Amino acid sequence: MPWPSRKRDKGAVADKKEPDAKIAKTEEEAPDKEEEEKSTKPPAGSSKSGWKNWKKTKESDSGGEESKITYCHWLLKSEPESRLEKGVDVKFSIDDLKAQPNQTTHWDGVRNYQARNFLRAMKLGQQAFFYHSNCKEPGVVGIVKIVKEAYPDHTQFDQKDPHYDSTSRKENPKWSMVDVQFVRMTKRFIPLSEIKAHHLAHKADGGPLKNMMLFTRQRLSIQPLTQEEFDFVLGLEEEKPH
């Protein structure tokens, strides 16, 4: 039996702890046709240790050189508090994930092209933060891993589902999902406010969270993380909360 969708792409709102943030125009708007056609995937790197967080490549055709980031981890937003969307409660907390068979679920309902492309770029075994969003105190609560790479999201064809898309065709589905499995809870809850404080400091001194998408593209429910970003945030679980 399918369970309520976890994502919050259409009609998404910024986290309540971010009233001063500039809101990126992403998931609250209609899908962008040009973005759909490009279906661009971020590169997924690897190294002897399993991951590669970044690399620089030369753009010979443009005659210039630019840094390109290789993402190898992810941040998945989900709503832990009840909210009805077209009559369906889209609540799904990390405890709900732990209660699923084999602590595994499909991450369905994503309806933003950039977020979808990030889903399609996910590789088997990669880890992601489970992030409670659109709630009294948003933040990172646990870690999950990708156990099945992208495949067609069945909810796009279900007329009873709040994320039904009448324009999608089974022979060429617009939307994808992945399967994720619970790995563990973080040693403590890592609130958005704490991560933001480090982000602001790193913007000034060039630290690893200076470009973290959680603050540059707040509305995306699927966000990539570099190895440095993932490691830094994970390291916060060892520190006493401020």
Would you mind describing this structure in some detail?
- With 242 residues, the chain is α+β, with helices and mostly antiparallel strands.
- The chain has helices at residues 33-38, 94-98, 113-121, 192-205, 213-216, 227-235; strands at residues 54-59, 64-69, 73-78, 84-85, 88-89, 104-107, 127-132, 139-152, 176-191, 222-225.
- The longest helix has 14 residues, at 192-205.
- It has six helices and ten strands.
- It has a domain at 71-237: ph1033 like domains (ph1033 like fold, Roll).
Outline:
The protein has helices spanning 33-38, 94-98, 113-121, 192-205, 213-216, 227-235, and strands spanning 54-59, 64-69, 73-78, 84-85, 88-89, 104-107, 127-132, 139-152, 176-191, 222-225. It is an alpha+beta fold.
Instruction: Calculate the mean pLDDT score and round it.
Output: 81
Number of strands: 10
CATH names the topology of one domain as ph1033 like fold
Share in helix: 10-25%
How many angstroms does the end-to-end distance come to? 42 Å
Beta-strand percent range: 25-35%
Q: Any idea what the CATH architecture of one domain is? A: Roll
- In DSSP terms (H or I, runs of 4 or more residues), the helix count works out at 6
Q: What profile does the largest beta sheet have? A: 6 strands, mixed
Topology:
Layout: H1 33-38, E1 54-59, E2 64-69, E3 73-78, E4 84-85, E5 88-89, H2 94-98, E6 104-107, H3 113-121, E7 127-132, E8 139-152, E9 176-191, H4 192-205, H5 213-216, E10 222-225, H6 227-235
Parallel strand pairs: 3-7
Antiparallel strand pairs: 1-2, 3-10, 4-5, 6-9, 7-8, 8-9
